[in-house]
């Protein structure tokens, strides 16, 4: 039981970090109906900006706002040079544009900041928390706990922002009905710039946490792939969905990793390591069959 | 009626709009005078909604010019139309479904907000004060439309007739000088229609708002409009005061020939 809890908790904690990446997707998808293929690349760019600035001599406290500046500029530039030209184009055109954007970032970022994998030290050590170890005998990583805390805080702040501010209201309006939003005079361009800015900010936090944990390297762009099952389970349009989806993926993949191999080996024989790698996708596939709109997504009914 | 109708404020000249091979509007010209209620009527698919969409820039016509308040344009943009004081409702209600009535009406204030989005993020206090002023204005609209009791209800839970009323409210919250209404009474029962009629007349009379209205109910149209434009298959077949239009042989033919 204790071991089960330990696995569950560390799974949930890493799940929060999946939620964070998924959240970046949801924000942009809600506001502009675009599936932003470049989200993973943005995570990479953000992490690279932080280590890049630090290598050029900036301390961490300075590197973070600098990276935030880079991400914000990037968001505004995306709106100005890519999205604005594509207003009223079909979603697939916008999706293609984000693929282009991903390649652009993946090419440009290493050119500016260098491409070799590097460590990012946030000053949080990745070791078991002793108090928990002594009291309950469970191994819970301090880094995971702090990272999850930061992610949870960010998610809460964003949720409040969207619910209670004027910008949030305008944003929900745009997400709800594009045409109506335009007709009441909501400046779509500002909204898009803000959303991409916020998505850039989310990418920065995600990039730093993932970068500190796994190293800042090209593989960070693949975190986006992990967000995909999260989105399928939670629903593409729901912020709570991204959170719950992340937790489900995080917890279930860890549990599956531990408990499934013995079962499957006794059933089929052979070796079933690395379940963590594919389990989320199988889970997502099941969801697609049973509940394609996701747990929190809106059921889509076409007007006929 | 006590109101005095003013000069032409919107002049549409030779508007043509095509969707691929479909000619939605062909060479249409008419004008709208300040403070009047101008109706657009015609059988289904005649191009009425398209006309409204051209006026506030949802559709861009291939030919023709739009002169609004002395400024000549080849096309409007929705955002531009909104900031120039044109508000509208849609044939298929386009409210923000997930939001409450109050929030929907507050979004209607957007063109009236002085602090810009970015400032809002920086000067929280000032923005909050401004928010209160807008809230006051929105409460006036709520009282006017008699929807106090549903203030905090998400619009998706409201019956159709009330949603139409809330959509009018969102448009009114912008304090527009011109209001475009696409079938504001469609699907309503007699009582709801009477209410809506009264609201439209009051807005026009008390606030002097110019109204361009699409409506299928001939009784209502002839009753409340100052002038009527008749479209059929994207062409204009009649234009004038209700009495004139009623006796126009082409209009009679179009209406008898078409099924409703
Ligand atoms: N976005 C669009 N794309 C393609 N065709 C369109 C579009 N909007 C309108 N049309 C076409 O233009 C013509 C006029 O349509 P419109 O909606 O303006 O008619 P309407 O007079 O408002 O009809 P109704 O009384 O049914 O509302 C129709 O043939 C319609 O199919
Ligand atoms: Mg119509």
Number of helices of chain A: 12
Q: Count of DSSP E strands of chain B?
A: 10
Total count of domains of chain A:
1
Most extensive interface, residues per chain? Answer: A-B, 23 and 34 residues
Question: How would you describe this structure to a colleague?
Answer:
- The complex is a heterodimer of chains A (304) and B (260).
- In chain A, helix 2 packs across helix 9.
- Chain A is globular.
- Chain A has 304 residues and is an all-alpha fold.
- Chain A is built from 12 helices and no strands.
- By secondary structure, chain B is of the alpha/beta class.
- Chain B has 2 domains: 1-85 and 176-260, Rossmann fold, CATH 3.40.50; 96-175, no CATH class.
- Chain B is 39% helix and 24% strand.
- Chain B is built from 10 helices and 10 strands.
- In chain B, the strands form 2 sheets. In chain B, strands 6-7-8-3-9-10 form a 6-stranded mixed β-sheet, with helices on both faces.
- In chain B, strand 7 (178-182), helix 7 and strand 8 form a beta-alpha-beta unit.
- The model of chain B has no long low-confidence stretch (mean pLDDT 91).
- The chains are: A mainly alpha (304), B alpha/beta (260).
- The complex binds adenosine-5'-triphosphate and magnesium ion (MG).
What's the short story on this structure?
Chain A is an all-alpha fold and 304 residues long. Chain A has helices spanning 2-32, 39-55, 60-83, 91-113, 130-136, 142-164, 166-176, 178-183, 188-214, 223-234, 239-268, 275-290.
């Amino acid at each position: 039981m204790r071991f089960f809890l330990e696995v569950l908790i560390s799974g949930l904690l890493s799940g929060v970090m999946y939620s964070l990446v998924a959240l970046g997707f949801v924000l942009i998808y809600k506001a502009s109906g675009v599936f932003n293929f470049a989200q993973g690349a943005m995570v990479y760019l953000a992490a690279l900006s932080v280590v890049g600035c630090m290598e050029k001599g900036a301390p961490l406290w300075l590197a973070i706002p600098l990276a935030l500046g880079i991400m914000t500029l990037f968001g505004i530039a995306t709106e100005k040079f890519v999205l604005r030209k594509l207003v009223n184009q079909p979603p697939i055109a916008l999706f293609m544009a984000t693929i282009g954007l991903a390649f652009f970032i993946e090419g440009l970022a290493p050119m500016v900041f260098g491409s070799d994998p590097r460590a990012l030290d946030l000053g949080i050590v990745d070791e078991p928390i002793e108090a928990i170890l002594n009291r309950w005998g469970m191994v819970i990583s301090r880094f995971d706990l702090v990272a999850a805390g930061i992610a949870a805080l960010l998610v809460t702040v964003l949720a409040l922002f969207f619910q209670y501010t004027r910008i949030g209201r305008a944003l929900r309006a745009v997400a709800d009905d594009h045409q109506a939003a335009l007709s009441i005079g909501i400046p779509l361009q500002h909204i898009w710039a803000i959303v991409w800015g916020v998505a850039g900010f989310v990418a920065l936090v995600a990039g730093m946490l993932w970068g500190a944990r796994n190293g800042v390297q090209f593989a960070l762009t693949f975190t986006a792939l992990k967000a995909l099952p999260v989105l399928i389970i939670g629903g593409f349009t729901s912020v709570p969905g991204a959170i719950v989806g992340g937790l489900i993926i995080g917890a279930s993949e860890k549990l599956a990793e531990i408990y499934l191999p013995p079962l499957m080996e006794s059933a089929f024989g052979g070796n079933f390591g690395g379940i963590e790698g594919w389990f989320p996708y199988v889970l997502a596939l099941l969801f697609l069959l049973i509940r394609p709109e996701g747990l929190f997504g809106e059921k889509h009914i076409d007007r006929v | 009626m006590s109101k005095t109708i003013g000069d032409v404020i919107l002049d549409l000249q030779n508007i043509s709009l095509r969707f691929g091979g479909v000619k939605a509007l062909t060479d249409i010209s008419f004008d709208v005078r300040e403070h009047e209620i101008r109706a657009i009527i015609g059988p289904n698919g005649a191009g009425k909604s398209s006309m409204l969409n051209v006026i506030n820039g949802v559709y861009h016509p291939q030919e023709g010019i739009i002169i609004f308040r002395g400024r000549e344009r080849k096309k409007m943009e929705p955002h531009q139309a909104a900031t120039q004081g044109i508000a509208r409702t849609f044939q298929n209600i386009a409210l923000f479904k997930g939001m409450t009535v109050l929030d929907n009406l507050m979004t209607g204030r957007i063109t009236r907000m002085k602090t810009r989005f970015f400032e809002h993020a920086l000067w929280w206090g000032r923005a909050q004060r401004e928010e209160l002023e807008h809230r006051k204005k929105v409460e006036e609209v709520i009282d006017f439309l008699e929807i106090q009791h549903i203030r905090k209800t998400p619009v998706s839970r409201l019956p159709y007739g009330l949603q139409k009323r809330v959509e009018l409210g969102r448009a009114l919250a912008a304090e527009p000088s011109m209001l475009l209404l696409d079938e504001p009474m469609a699907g309503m029962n007699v009582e709801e229609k009477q209410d809506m009629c009264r609201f439209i007349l009051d807005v026009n009379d008390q606030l002097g708002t110019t109204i361009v209205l699409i409506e299928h109910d001939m009784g209502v149209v002839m009753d409340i409009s100052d002038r009527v434009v008749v479209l059929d298959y994207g062409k204009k077949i009649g234009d004038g005061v209700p009495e004139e239009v009623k006796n126009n042989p082409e209009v009679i033919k179009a209406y008898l020939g078409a099924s409703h």
